[in-house]
Every structure is written in structure tokens, then in C-alpha cells.
Amino acid sequence: MKSAFLIGSIGAALGWSYVRHIQLPMGPSRLLWGGVVFGHRGCRNVDGTPENTLAAFKYAAERGCGGIECDARLTKDNEVVIFHDTAAHGLLREVPFDRRIDELTLFELRECTYTADPTQAIRVPTLEETILFCRDNNLRLLIEMKDLKRAYLCTDKVLDLYRRYPDYMYDQTTLISFHPGALYHARKRDKKVAVCQLYSDNLVQLWIAANTDAVPPLLRLCPALWDRLLLFVQAKIMPWVAGCSMVGPRYDLFDEASRKRWMTRNICMYLWGFTRREDCTPEMRQPGVCVSGDDHQEDFATPRPPPDFDIFGDRQRELERQQEEAYRRLRIGK
């Protein structure tokens, strides 16, 4: 028993030393992004406007969004495009349902039209086009790296755009992902990059249900157990080890105590996964919290305080006078 305890203690100490050794410095602050509403994939389920397109991003901007959330993955020829699903899944007219995006070249994708677009004029955008659109429209940008099969290569391709557009990218964009290794890889290569660790309590089960081929066979054995372990790593370990600027729990994992805890560490919370506008409660519209919505983004915005016309401070001085008078009367009463 003593031997097992000793070995366990030594193992824990060595593990802690290793974690401290690989820990990266804190990334650039995103605390001031609190209150920003992001258009989730620009917009979803809007008639005539396919998600994750420049048309969807324009739709979100016209409805008051302060930023865009988009999904980046690689094509067959290693170009970064904006598309959520691993395969076409009926979103593209000229592509079979189960044809993978990484099996198509950028040119082949450009020839495709969206089934949700009656004009047949909207095309799959590249990440670079999305960056230029957001830069020109003064929008912040959350780039979710969706490619699990070639996660590190996708990360490197995105980092190339940081060097191409440094003035916008370093200040106005944040890399987000469920993949802890991809975020750590990004910050290890460039410590000026801001990253956000996404997490949910049933991620592995969702991946298996979606038949994601990048899920290792080991995770398929006991997905509920792996979900608990992955949640611990994503929510407790990686924000500290990778020096995350933001953390991204699904909205139903939010609580006020976690908001205050992350704020004291100068880390902003990003809430996602809303299915109804009512799910975004007033408690979530607090300093240090930003959210994303599929549509009706104006309903998610933090209410603006009423205008203060007391520019000369008369109201404050009157309040101080009243407080001083109440204090004087209290002393006289004694």
C-alpha cells in the first residue's frame, strides 16, 4: 500500500513538472470582447441564404452582429475553405451526399452551387475571402478549425494568413477549436495568436453519432467515460497550459461562478449552442461574456445602459451631499 502511494505520488509530481514545463505564456487578452454577438456560421436556416458563405456573413452584419463565427477545413489541394460538415451532406447540388470536402479541390468546390441558394450564384468561400470581408466591414472573427484528420496542417495554413494580414488578424481574430492539440500547436508556433478552447459534455458521443472517421477506435469503446475525461482536459487543463485568451463552453455549462473566475484570470467566455433565443438569459449578458446566435442576433445583444446626460457631474455631487448630510445627522443623533 505504501509502495503504491509512493509510486503514485512520484508519478503525480513528474506529471505536474511536465505540465509546468510545456505550459505556454498567457495569450493576448480578449476580455473586451464581452458583450459582442457573433453570427454563428453567419446565419443558419435562413431561407435563400446558405450558412458559412459571404451572403450569410453579410446577413449577420446587417442585423447588428459585431463578429462572425465560421468553420475552416482543408480541401484536397490543401486550401482553407469555409464549410462546416466533413462531407457535402446535401448542401451542394453537384456533389454526392457522402462525398468529403477534403476529396475535392478548390476548383471543384468553386463549381458547386448550394441547394439552399435559389440564385445558384453563391459559392463556397475561402478563409482568406472571409478575412477580407470581415476586415472591410470592421467585424471580429472566430475561426473554428474543424479539420480533425489534418488538424495541424490546417492550423499551419491558417497561421500563414496571420503573417499575410497581421494588422487585422492578431487584433481582431481568435482561433477556436475542440481539438486541444491544434490550439497548443498554434500558440507554440506563434505566441501572439489568441485561441479559445471549446468544450461540451457529450462531444465524443456526438462525434460517434456523426460518424466522424477521425475519432480513434479507443474512444468508441466507452464514449461516456471519454466525454468526462475530455471535458476535464478542455475546461480545466488546456486553458491554462495553452494560455487561452477565451474559453468556449456550450451555453448550458455556464454559471456565474465560472464567469467571475475566468474574468479574474483576464479570460473571456464565449457561449454557443443556443437553440432558442430565450436560452440566452440576462445572466449571460454580463461583462466578460460573448455569445453566438444562428439568427435574430439582435435578441442576444447586451442591453445598452440609458444615456447619461449629467456631463457636469451635478447628480453625483448631489448624491455625495445627501450622503454627507445623512452622516452628519447620524453623528448628531449619537
From TrEMBL:
Coiled coil: none annotated. InterPro entries: GP_PDE_dom, PLC-like_Pdiesterase_TIM-brl. Residues 35-285 form the GP-PDE domain. GO terms for cellular component: plasma membrane. Pfam families: GDPD. GO terms for molecular function: glycerophosphodiester phosphodiesterase activity. GO terms for biological process: ethanolamine metabolic process; N-acylethanolamine metabolic process; phospholipid metabolic process. It comes from the Eukaryota. This is GP-PDE domain-containing protein.
